[in-house]
Design brief:
homodimer; alpha/beta; Rossmann fold; Dihydrodipicolinate Reductase, domain 2; Alpha-Beta Plaits; 3 domains; ten-stranded mixed sheet; six-stranded parallel sheet; 35% helix; elongated
């Protein structure tokens, strides 16, 4: 073991960057593999903004790209965020200069991971991103390093704490999505522009990265099928519970003979299932491997403490001198990402059909479902005050998605049906 | 990345060794970091025993120590087992010869980890043991690598699948410990001599290793306080459930100002707690860190598939060339292990007191508890057929263990009390 001191440049001094500086200030002895790390230079949007950590002794850069290229740092930490722009330019600059890079930027890795991996591997330097997925839960390390002795068939979980918090609050307090979102924004749990979170894109970035690590293919965010929680209604949360399920934003990636399916959907998880029980801002993940079986991991997915600890663990990994591919295989050997046609997906589904309370409605619906080859697993009709009609809810047996969509289109046209039926998937967990 | 082929010597061809050979036969392309691994030499108790994998092309060694020292291997995998004897001699021989060692041997690491770490670090070669704890769940990697950016306060979990299976079966089928153990032995889930498992020693080895990784102290198996499940009675399983708990063999390690407490006890976990819900042969672990918060991980803790995958992941780690300490810090910097006096431990407890059904029994018991400073959280008196007396069960508020033991000694002497009260701890989870 050497006793080198690594000069670390940190671009971005928000929650995670501030947490990292605090961590290294609290732990001046941080040298898990012999070497130690000291932040010597920083870059952020505003130099003068009040901060809990004194940065006056550090070299200041207005431009993160200039920091990344500085000969006075040995390791670049990118916490700027965003899939393109300065974050990408800075990471490319550092890698081209032969500097190891640690980042928490899920959008960057999900959208440009393959090209950045090729660049890092050509330069022989690590590109690490533990903090990009599940905060302090080492999901990336588990997939990249611990699961190399296995063939992973699927991963599925709750990867966005904001959505999980909102859905949990809706159920607990009986308030609407819009109402709970406003509160979450006031409390700082949700961003002023919440689209990345509630639109499912943040979870989509994360599951794209996990899919690449699990299956040895290049990350392909564009191929992910993404639906957010904006349209989740309290009515569905209640009715799903009556049927024994809880609605969660489930991100999943599965490998079949046809290719890879990467999805984010509000989905029904059985109430007794660990994913249904992960409430509040928790993140949770199932990994299903052919040899290892099913592994479940759960923990806080965000926040300064967990995320900064994940960045620090990546810095420690750089200092060990380990040489491994950025994803599961060297970037030249990554398999092309072949997306499965979503309409060919087979799974159980939840349908809510609002009908006028008149004779024959159920008969017409069940006849239509039968014609489309959709069979029913459980069924509930329950008057709900103020719902503007009577909701009929049912959970189907496993059905090809195309049959389901066909049935929905036909049911919508039935005389007794008031609006397009609401479709939610039952999580395959 | 280089393209070296590592010649691997494997000592021990039981479940894990056979699984590893099968894995490398199934995955001839196994080269996660560029290098590849090929088993070239083996050692086992019997050369001629029928095996599913053909070993006729491999160099045979009668003596694992001779295999460990062979100049024709680059990496030594020790799957012989046992804390001393040939396993220890072989690992020492390999390390002294400057060869990386991968082992699944929890007893060896728990009992001799510090001296072996010193030897490995002096030689600058890795000593890895992921398969020693929780099978395919990367608990060791999580503690050693992912949690370096945190200060761990405690770890607690279910680390022995055999005990968990037996306790789950007792509850499910209403059969006695002895009865279920016999069945588990017939099914191959328990060894002919089950002491290591049911006596809590296997879990003790594992939690000793996790404590060393978590707290940066030398592993000290001798300081672990260990109680097995042999004396767990069906009656307590039932009564605990009436009080809202399930009995699990919980292994825990906690750091306080006074030192480190490492324990294995049959303990009560609240029914709704994830540890209570990990049934069958599952393993499960909570990690509590100051920055990261609470992380929970669960999976199959044994079996050829998971354990061989963990050994393969360690081989991959060796091939990355990473240089890190064997435990959390270089062996010269490991803190001395200061064990907390068990009598100073404070926690909730379950007491079952068998009494003659006569007036004044409850009054005498509650008076004695009050005199000893033990206050009661919940209380249950319930006639149980064939129990030979009436059981009074209670769960205390948090109490120093010394007060509890004092109370038990005094209660045992009360006229209405038939036998020494049964004490079980409530898990601090």
């Amino acid at each position: 073991m050497t006793n080198k001191t690594w000069r670390v440049g940190v671009a971005g001094l928000g929650t995670v960057g501030g947490g990292l500086l605090q961590f290294l200030a609290d732990r001046p002895d941080f040298a898990p593999a012999g070497d130690s790390a000291v932040v010597t230079a920083v870059s952020a949007r505003s130099k003068s903004r009040p901060r809990t950590i004194d940065i006056s002794g550090l070299t200041w850069f207005d431009d993160p790209v200039a920091l990344a290229g500085s000969p006075d740092i040995d390791l670049f930490v990118e916490l700027v965020g965003g899939s393109d722009g300065p974050a990408k330019a800075a990471v490319e600059t550092a890698l081209k200069a032969g500097k190891p890079v640690v980042t928490a930027n899920k959008a960057l890795i999900a959208e440009h991971g393959a090209e950045l991996a090729a660049l890092a591997e050509a330069q022989g330097v690590p590109l690490l991103f533990e903090a990009a997925v599940m905060g302090g839960v080492p999901a990336v390390k588990m997939m990249r390093e611990a699961m190399v002795g296995d063939d992973i068939d699927s991963v599925a979980g709750i990867l966005n704490g904001t959505c999980n918090f909102i859905l949990s609050e809706m159920e607990k307090t009986g308030r609407s999505f819009a109402d709970v979102l406003r509160e979450a924004q006031a409390l700082g749990y949700a961003e002023a522009d919440p689209t990345m979170d509630v639109g499912g894109f943040d979870a989509g970035h994360k599951i794209t990265i996990l899919a690449a690590l699990a299956f040895g293919c290049a990350p392909n965010f564009a191929a992910a099928e993404i639906e957010g929680i904006e349209a989740v209604e309290l009515l569905d949360i209640k009715l799903a519970k009556d049927l024994g399920y809880r609605i969660k934003l489930v991100a999943s990636a599965a490998r079949t003979e046809d290719g890879v399916a990467v999805k984010v959907h509000p989905s029904l998880a059985p109430l007794e299932h660990p994913l249904a029980q992960a409430g509040g801002a928790l993140n949770a993940l199932f990994i299903e491997g052919r040899r290892v079986g099913r592994i479940f991991v759960q923990g806080p997915g965000a926040g300064a403490g967990p995320t900064a600890a994940a960045v620090a663990a990546d810095i420690a990994d750089v200092m060990t001198g380990a040489v491994r591919p950025v994803f599961q295989a060297p970037s030249g050997n990554l398999k092309p990402f072949i997306a499965v046609d979503p309409s060919r997906t087979v799974g159980k589904a939840y349908l809510r059909i609002m009908v006028r309370d008149e004779p024959g409605a159920i008969a017409a619906i069940s006849e239509t479902l039968a014609e489309c080859g959709v069979s029913i697993d459980s069924f509930l009709q329950k008057p709900v005050e103020g719902a503007g009609g009577v909701p009929i809810v049912l959970v189907t047996h496993a059905t090809p998605e195309s049959n389901l969509l066909d049935a929905i289109t036909r049911i919508e046209k039935l005389r007794a049906v008031l609006e397009r039926p609401r479709l939610l998937r039952v999580a395959r967990i």
